[in-house]
Structure formats: C-alpha cells, structure tokens
Automatic annotation (TrEMBL):
The keyword Signal applies. Residues 443-547 form the Galactose oxidase-like Early set domain. It comes from Gossypium arboreum (Tree cotton). This is Aldehyde oxidase GLOX-like. Keywords: Signal. InterPro entries: Gal_Oxase/kelch_b-propeller, Gal_Oxidase_central_sf, Glyoxal_oxidase_N, GO-like_E_set, Ig-like_fold, Ig_E-set. Transmembrane segments: none annotated. The keyword Zinc does not apply.
Length: 549
C-alpha cells in the first residue's frame, strides 16, 4: 500500500470514530499502538498526575472560559480575577479512572494555570502555585475510593508567587519549589522547618532578556542528596540545605536554550548498580528551540526546532555533554521513562516555540530512546498518532505500561473552530511494542508481594512471578518507578531505579522467585509510593504499588 494511501486511511478511521466512546485502536508495521480512550473529558489536559489508586488527576486553568464539563450538584465558582468568568459552573479539573475508562468533575477554587506538583510520602498530590488568585496557593488532593474526594486549598501556603515553577520531593519528604516567573529563588513546603525563600542567582543568570528561557527548570535529586538544576542551556548542583552551589556544569555545545519557552524536555536516566560505592547518575536533555525562536515566532517566523539531545554523567568529576541526533526535531515534547528503562519521546511540534499560537508542524510520531545502545543506534521511530499534541499537552505512564496522552491548547481560551490547532479535549493511550500479545509468554505476572505492600530500605525482598515461556535468568530484573507530575513537557519527580536481581530460583509450575535488594538510602529513592515492575527480556509485567519507608 502506498504511504499517502495509508495515511489517508488512518485519518479516515479517526474521523469515523472520533465521536464514539469506544477504544479505537490503530496499528501498523511501525512499532507501537494508539488507542482513543475518550473523545472528550470536557477539559484540556494541561497537567497530569497518576495516583496510587490508578486514577489520574487532570486540570487546565480556571480562566480559559466555560469548559465542556459541568460541575456536579449545581456547584459554581466565583472568580474576581481579570479575564475570568465571574461565575463559572464548569469544571477545570477531572479525575480519570484508568480501569473503568471513566472520569468525573473536580472543583479547583483558584487558578492552577502553569503550576507544579508532587506526590508526598503519604500518597497525596500536593500542587503549588498558578496564576492570579492561585499564585501563592497550596492545594491537596487525597486519593479515595469514593467519588466524594476533591481539592482542598491552603491560602498563602507559599512565601512567593509561583508561576512556571518546578517541584521535587526531597529525601526528608518535604517539597522544594524552584523558580517561576521573576522568582530567582526557591522555598519549601510545608513551612514547619524553613518558612522563607532562598536566593538562587543561577536563575537570574540564565534569564534571557525578553524570552526568559529558564522557566520550569529541570530539577533532579542526585544520588549524593544534592539537586541538579538545569535552566536555559546549563546546570548547577545545589546543596539546598546550605544554599550553596557545589558544582557548575558546562554549557550544552551550541548554547541553544532548552527551557520554557524554548521548551525541550529532560529525564534522569535509570539509576543502576545501586550497591556500588561510586554510583553514577546521568541526565538526558532533548529538543528545544534555537535562541530567538520565541521572538521570531511572535512575528510569524517559525524556526525549526532543535534535533539534538545532550547527555551528561552528573556524578563525573569532570562532566562533559555528549551530543546525539534525534530522527525528528522536536519542541514541547515529553520524555517518559518506561518500566524497562527505555525513554519515550512524545508530543510536540517541529518548529516554533511554546506560547499562544507559536508552534507549527506537529510531531505525530513518538520516538523510543534506548540508553544502553551505542550512539547512532539509540533512537527508533514509533507509529504516529492522528491528533496533534501541541502547546499545553501532557503524558504520563500508567501501571499497565501504557502511556496516557492528552491536552493541546495553544489558545488563550477554549477554541474549537477556525484555528490551525483546535483545543483538544481527548485522551489517548500509546502502547509500546512490549505490550504486544506475541510477548505474553515472556511477560512476568507478579504474584507476591500484593499491591500496596510496604517495603523497607536496604532489605532483601522476594518477588514471586509467573512466566509461562522460557526464562533467561540473567535477563530478569525488577524496577521501581516514582509517579511523575507532568506539565509543560517536564515530568517532575520522575525516577526509575533498576533493582536488578540477586538470585532467581524456580518453584515449579512456571513460578519463579526473584530476590532483590531495595534502595539503601533516601537520597537514592525518597520515601513514598512507587510502581514495582519485573522485566524479562525487556518485557515488563504490570506494575504493583509498593510503599517505600
């Protein structure tokens, strides 16, 4: 079949089924599979967080205008903010139940636009900042089994206004909130230890006049307990306790920005060999836009996005960036860690920058990055979606190994007609090739421990699995993934630990016992809820929730 004909058929299928509440599945000879879950959840998925009960909290902003989903029981929200509806009876947040493929309206009281969040050790979503009346708010969502739980808000929970800031969970369970527009500092939540802000000149130094290019900084907890903070085109290692920069990293070759609005993405690559004294940690930064792209796009000139990734060992005494070339240029893309240690690049545009109406040429094809392969063979293009996911789109990994994808609204309000990229209210799931049925005999099924079990630091732990096919014991490994808060092309708190296996023994009837050692310190893995997977020959099991304490 000719390629144009194939593309036409895929688009035709999408149009035929777009209004149906079904699970449309698109496949081809290219790796992966797309599934249309919901044609509309009523709001655009700008922010996304998976919770320990396999529900995903999603929200956009309260001053987009009236959404396509009403608040329940006649609820309405009063808003005196400029540009917002004074009385708004529509929802701007939903809870999506993965298992039932259903959703319900939630009520946020203040504006959560371009905010940040993290899961605390007790499993609550703590979300911070936003715009106007929401800029100093802290909001808490506690998972529950009923349909009654909703957002709770803490007025003046922040010491400074936080808009386009980044959160990270710390080894002691607190949250650090870094930066934000015109905020060259950081603070902590809750305020029981340190109530004030702490200056961070690095954020001022990386601020490009007229464009910024340092918002939503990429923040990762290093294995030594310090914070790796990347903004614009360079990074530092911060001792946040002493408010001291302990290392300055070189600028990425070429010097082009990777932070909002020249939005690239970044991940802390999987942490391996956790028992080694000289444990290494690597960061991968991909995509973005050349310097000046925001200003040029504002004038109608949409410059091609960056096609490079930069990789660095942040624990190296003399770290250097190593450059790689992606198959597709990408700005506003997301990078999602998969249970088998691969990285999925998804969403975004091929030119322009982040901002209202400033992106062009949607990148429909995800790309798989395989970090353990040699340079030149690490990228593999996946099957394309039919739905552009431009500015304000999002993605997150689910417990079953799929990647949930939603959002895209490059407009100041909800806009569905007479625009290049209409506001997108749908939800899709991307299934990597490891979910293909042809791998079912290699796929582990975790029998014990049971989901929601507690595990302790630096302990030998047994995992019992069933694998019906032939087992390669040296290719069996356990991994632990921290659920991430995703917005604006960055998954905050995303972290994958490779526990490996200390020993694999058979117990008959296709059952195997896998002995692993849990992470030894809070610096490696802050306390809280993780998804535990068993991976066999790169095929992961479904995850189970465990609580590390």
């Amino acid at each position: 079949m000719a390629i144009p004909t194939l593309i036409f058929l895929i688009l035709l299928l999408h149009l035929l089924f777009a209004s149906q509440p079904c699970h449309l599945i698109l496949t081809s000879a290219v790796d992966g599979r797309w599934q249309l879950l919901q044609t509309s959840i009523g709001i655009s998925a700008m922010h996304m967080q998976l919770l320990r009960n396999d529900r995903v909290v999603i929200f956009d902003r309260t001053d987009f205008g009236k959404s396509n989903l009403s608040l329940p029981n006649g609820k309405c929200r009063n808003d005196l903010s400029e540009g917002a509806l004074k009385v708004d009876c529509s929802a701007h947040s939903v809870e999506y139940d993965v298992s039932s493929n259903k959703f319900r309206a939630l009520m946020v009281q203040t504006n959560v636009w371009c905010s940040s969040g993290a899961i605390t050790p007790d499993g609550k979503l703590v979300q911070t900042g936003g715009f106007n009346d929401g800029e100093r708010r802290v909001r808490v969502f506690s998972p529950c089994s009923s349909r009654d739980c909703d957002w709770q808000e803490i007025p003046n929970g922040l010491a400074a206004r936080r808009w386009y800031a980044t959160n990270h969970i710390l080894p002691d369970g607190r949250l650090i909130i870094v930066g934000g527009r015109r905020q060259f500092n950081y603070e902590f939540s809750p305020k029981n230890i340190a109530a004030n802000t702490f200056n961070l000149p690095f954020l001022l130094e990386t601020n490009d006049k007229g464009e910024e290019n340092n918002l939503y900084p990429f923040v990762f907890l290093n294995v030594d307990g310090n914070l790796f903070i990347f903004a614009n085109n360079r990074a530092i290692l911060l001792d946040y306790v002493k408010n001291k920069v302990v290392k300055t990293y070189p600028t990425i070759p070429g010097g082009d920005p990777r932070s909002y609005p020249s939005t690239g993405s970044a991940v802390l690559l999987p942490l391996k060999n956790l028992k080694m004294a000289d444990l290494q940690a690597e960061v991968l930064v991909c995509g973005g836009a050349p310097k000046g792209s925001f200003a040029q796009a504002s004038r109608g000139n949409f410059i091609k996005a960056l096609k490079t990734c930069a990789r660095i060992t942040i624990t190296d005494p003399n770290p250097k960036w190593v450059m790689e070339t992606m198959p597709l240029a990408r700005v506003m893309g997301d990078m999602i860690l998969l249970p088998n240690g691969k990285v999925l690049l998804i969403n975004g545009a091929g030119s322009g920058s982040a901002g209202w109406e400033l992106g062009r040429n949607p990148v429909l094809s995800p790309v798989l990055y395989r970090p353990d392969r040699k340079i030149g063979s690490r990228f593999k293009t996946q099957i394309p979606t039919t739905i552009p996911r431009m500015y304000h789109s999002s993605a997150t990994l689910l417990r079953d190994g799929r990647v949930l994808v939603g959002g895209s609204n490059p407009h100041a309000f909800y806009n569905f007609t007479s625009v290049l990229f209409p506001t997108e209210l749908s939800l899709e799931a991307f299934s990597p090739t490891y979910l293909d049925s042809k791998f079912n005999d290699l796929r582990p099924k975790i029998i014990t421990p049971k989901s929601m079990s507690g595990i302790r630091y630096n302990k030998r732990t047994n995992i019992q699995v069933v694998i019906t096919g032939k087992v390669a014991e040296n290719l069996v490994s356990a991994t632990m993934l921290a659920p991430a808060f995703n917005t604006h092309s960055f998954s905050m708190n995303q972290r994958l630990l490779v526990l490996g296996n200390d020993k694999v023994t058979t117990s008959g009837n296709s059952a195997y016992n896998i002995e692993v050692t849990t992470p030894s310190t809070h610096n490696l893995a802050p306390p809280g809820f993780y998804l535990l997977f068993v991976v066999h020959q790169n095929i992961p099991s479904q995850g189970i929730w465990v609580k590390l304490r």
